[in-house]
């Protein structure tokens, strides 16, 4: 399904994968890149081959065939410096459910072999808890025992050596008190780490593309968890809208976060550019997107000058968004394109990593 200002998260069975590799075209440097702040986070949400359920253990040879572009842009260097395995059901995690697709509350496909596949190439790994399909389960889990849920998320992070992303897409009356208890419990186990040296300390949250959806969550997170002076979460991801935006629309959405909404009650305060990433599609609809295969024609190229030079407007001191996140690697939906060969994304995402000079492994993040 598609949700206004949210990520696409349609779940079902996988289709047959295609073959052949994609050559990497030469990348043109974005205009203005030399005077801006290059992306520090340049990552992809990763959906496995079953539309984000991760309900089967992957054959790692097949996994590499489908996802090799993530760890090799064509010259041996990864295309991204972060992958976010999506999604863990929060209620299943809280209950420690074991069934055909989960073991002790965790999808069986999200295992150490997959994590090590990426980390062995210098790519950071996080797990996303939630997604639009699991919104009601977030509500139930937070109502039942948010502290225990936070403790279980922290233990999962410790076991796999990963960070955690909060993807709680409750648009009306989100349980921010429960989410605060979840975060407090997680931070009790893994305190905020400005150095970024501890992967388990990386805790982030997803917000809408702009400030006009997930309003209450956005307001609370910006005011309480994402302030440079007292950071609780590392950063936010401004998710993709209902369809791929134009460059101008993407920039307008992201500017809303930087400026805030003073006319709302309560107001959404400004968000430091260094405290969020902007989301773009690489798999959407039936056509292969240039964001996946052709950097010169891509939105990451078209918005590169803006994202690297976006100025603070009331919060933060440094220019430039934290980076980009791409929705989504492999098979995010049972319908539409995938990022598997011959549609792998070395020529779009990978060429962008070269043009932007993305640090791999990820360097310590700007704090203000």
Would you kindly provide a written description of the structure presented here, covering whatever features stand out?
- The strands form 2 sheets. An 8-stranded parallel β-barrel has the order 1-2-5-6-7-8-9-10, surrounded by 5 helices. Strands 3-4 form a two-stranded antiparallel ribbon.
- The chain contains 12 helices and 10 strands.
- It has one domain: Alpha-Beta Barrel (TIM Barrel).
- Helix 1 (60-71) packs parallel to helix 3 (112-119) and helix 5 (146-160) runs parallel beside helix 6 (176-189).
- It has helices at residues 60-71, 90-95, 112-119, 135-144, 146-160, 176-189, 215-224, 247-259, 290-293, 299-302, 304-309, 346-356; strands at 41-46, 82-88, 102-103, 106-107, 124-130, 163-167, 203-207, 236-238, 276-281, 323-329.
- The relative contact order is 0.21.
- It has 368 residues and is of the alpha/beta class.
- InterPro entries: GH (IPR017853).
- This is Chitinase.
- Residues 1-28 form the signal peptide.
């Amino acid at each position: 399904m598609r949700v206004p200002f949210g990520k696409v998260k349609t779940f079902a069975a996988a289709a047959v994968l295609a073959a052949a590799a994609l050559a990497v075209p030469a990348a043109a440097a974005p205009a203005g890149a030399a005077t801006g702040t290059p992306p520090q986070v340049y990552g992809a949400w990763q959906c496995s081959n079953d539309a984000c359920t991760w309900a089967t253990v992957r054959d790692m040879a097949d996994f590499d065939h489908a996802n090799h572009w993530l760890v090799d842009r064509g010259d041996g260097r990864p295309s991204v410096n972060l992958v976010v395995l999506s999604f863990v059901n929060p209620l299943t995690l809280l209950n420690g459910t074991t069934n055909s697709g989960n073991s002790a509350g965790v999808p069986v496909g999200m295992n150490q072999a997959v994590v090590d596949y990426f980390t062995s190439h210098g790519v950071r790994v996080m797990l996303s808890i939630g997604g639009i399909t699991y919104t009601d389960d977030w509500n139930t889990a937070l109502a039942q025992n948010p502290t225990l849920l936070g403790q279980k998320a922290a233990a999962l992070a410790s076991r796999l050596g990963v960070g955690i992303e909060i993807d709680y897409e409750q648009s009306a009356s989100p349980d921010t008190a429960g989410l605060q208890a979840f975060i407090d419990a997680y931070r009790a186990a893994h305190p905020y780490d400005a150095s970024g040296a501890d992967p388990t300390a990386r805790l982030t949250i997803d917000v809408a593309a702009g400030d006009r959806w997930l309003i209450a969550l956005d307001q609370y997170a910006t005011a309480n968890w994402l302030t440079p002076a007292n950071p609780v979460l590392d950063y936010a991801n401004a998710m993709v809208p209902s369809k791929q935006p134009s460059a101008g629309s993407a920039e307008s959405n992201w500017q809303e976060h930087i400026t805030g909404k003073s006319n709302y009650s309560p107001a959404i305060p400004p968000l430091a550019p260094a405290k969020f990433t902007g989301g773009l599609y690489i798999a959407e609809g039936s056509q292969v997107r240039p964001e996946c295969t052709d950097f010169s024609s891509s939105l990451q190229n078209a918005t590169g000058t803006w994202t690297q030079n976006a100025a603070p407007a009331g919060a933060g001191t440094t220019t430039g968004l934290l980076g980009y996140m791409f929705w989504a690697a492999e098979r995010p939906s049972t319908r539409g394109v995938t990022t598997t060969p011959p549609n792998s994304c070395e020529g779009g995402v990978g060429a962008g990593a070269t043009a932007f000079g993305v640090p791999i492994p990820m360097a310590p993040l700007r704090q203000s």
